[in-house]
Amino acid sequence: MQNTSRAFNAVYRDVLRETGLTYPQYLVMLPLWERGDLTVKEIGALLRLDSGTLSPLLKRLEAAGLITRERSTSDERSVVIRLTAAGEELREPAREVTEKIATAASLKADEVRTLSDILQRLTRSLDAAVS
Questions:
Q1: What pTM was computed for the model?
Q2: In this structure, which topology does domain 2-130 adopt according to CATH?
Q3: H or E segment and range at residue 79
């Protein structure tokens, strides 16, 4: 399993080179492209990342001009993350990432769905085991 993870990381690094994003940054951008503005807490919950891990990623994305971080007007404790125009522009090139990864893995669409289903079921089972 560790070897597979390393192999995926190498392919992602190569595929993402065109976008200028690292794999963790790409993971943060995905929910923003899919859902729009989100709070730090929402992104953390979606990606299962704590704020100590997420905050540096957000700072780097903001420094790169891809997102903005603003205090919520309805709850000052909450920080809203928004895509900038530059962040929006990466949406199209990033759409190709999944296809390129599937091609590199030599998986057909139905195999990707099956693998995804299995991994989701595994995650739910592991979550239930510690609840």
A1: 0.85
A2: Arc Repressor Mutant, subunit A (1.10.10)
A3: strand 79-83
